[in-house]
Amino acid sequence: MLELLVLACLLAVAHSLQGADVVLSCSFIEEGGGMMGGSLFARTPATLVLRDLPMSSDLSPETITPYNPPDEPKADDLIFEVVVSSVEIPEAESLLHADCNEQEVVCELSRYVPRGTEPDALPAHFIGSIQIEGGGVGLTLVLQTISNEKAESSTPPLMQSKLQLPLSQWGTLLTDAVFVVFSRSPSLAAPIGVDARLDCGYRQKDASPEQSVGLEWRWQHKGNGRRILDMRTQGVETDGGTEVQVEREGVSADSTLLIRDGNASLTMKTLKVSDEGTYICTISSGAFQTQQIVQLQITQPPRVFLSEKKVVFQDESPQKLSCHCERYYPLDVHVEWLSQPPSETESISLTEKASLSSHRQHNDGTFSLSSFLFVRPSEHPPGTTFTCRVSHFALQTPSDVTLTVETPEPEAGKYYWMVLATLVLSVLFLYQASR
Ligand SMILES: *[C@@H]1O[C@H](CO)[C@@H](O)[C@H](O)[C@H]1NC(C)=O
């Protein structure tokens, strides 16, 4: 995989100072590959070439080498070349950077039939889904084939064996990107209680201001799913109004932004643990209907504290330390105990000696957990420090709470005995006196 990505990075070409080509290794997915009892879908390696994407930042010429189409065009090659992009491809630059930063790019291509067209009608349509792992942009592109007029010369064009579509002289399928649904942050993590915006937008070739646009947001999680918002706008010009249905309290989308800017973002008020999941933004406009996924993860860091304010060994009996992790999400939390003897720099792990409570789940879906450790005076002289270290997904660095073993105060001990003796004597005296 790594080699593929490095190759793709090297294949990026700067046409001019503003434009660069992005070459992605993809899979072409077709239904019906399951003859041998395997998956229902067959995957064939394919390539997607996005030509001359506008790039704003300075690209160093050393990192880019020219993209060369195959020397000898082959009918089996599946190279989708987006020669013109009638729509702006948002965040195109992040595709180039992802390649060079060795982020994994998942690219899948498949056939697409726009509403109201026959499956074999020309121009043909394909859908390309490009997702950058670990953040970045998520794009779903509708590609429309461009007829290859110049090739009408002496020899008939080479036909792609699988698609039965004419290839360019250099062996690629020429396409135009006519519709795109995208998210600038397809994966989002947020704590409970805050408001969130799930980003989604679209661009369409020759969009008419009169046409109606449909937006649906669905939520899915662990086998459950439901519609969150459904919006249908009548175009700006006709001013036919907007119909909206909302099925989670506090969610909204802006119909003006939807028509004017192609902005389909969903605003959610006061996030809860139960909002976690996969959100599907579906845009229908004209003949096209396409989706983009946005993942929402709820991450709530634990509050970490010890019950004990200090450790003082008065005698030889062991003492219990309790470390509490409160109201965190998701469930996985890791508690370590460390001790560091006085005048030493290395810590010793005591985690194996500790015991854990079970997870407690609160009404808001967050969890709490406690860890207990018995410490003995014989093993831990005064000056020893104990650290409870908690690691959790929502914490960038582990959270530490520390205690130091204090020297018992002998004065305090003597004083205690004196008070006790005085008390006993007074009681005896009073008892005698009362008789
Ligand atoms: C939608 O609008 C919001 C608020 O102005 C903005 O932050 C966000 O980036 C926009 N998203 C898209 C996809 O245009």
Automatic annotation (TrEMBL):
Domain Ig-like: 156-299, 302-404
GO annotation, cellular component aspect: membrane
GO biological process entries: antigen processing and presentation of endogenous peptide antigen via MHC class I
Keywords, alphabetical: Immunoglobulin domain, Signal
UniProt keyword annotation of Signal present: yes
PROSITE patterns xrefs: IG_LIKE (PS50835), IG_MHC (PS00290)
Pfam families (UniProt xref): C1-set, V-set
Superkingdom, natural source: Eukaryota
Leader sequence segment: 1-16
UniProt protein name: TAP binding protein like
Provenance organism: Pygocentrus nattereri
Lineage of the species this protein comes from: Eukaryota, Metazoa, Chordata, Craniata, Vertebrata
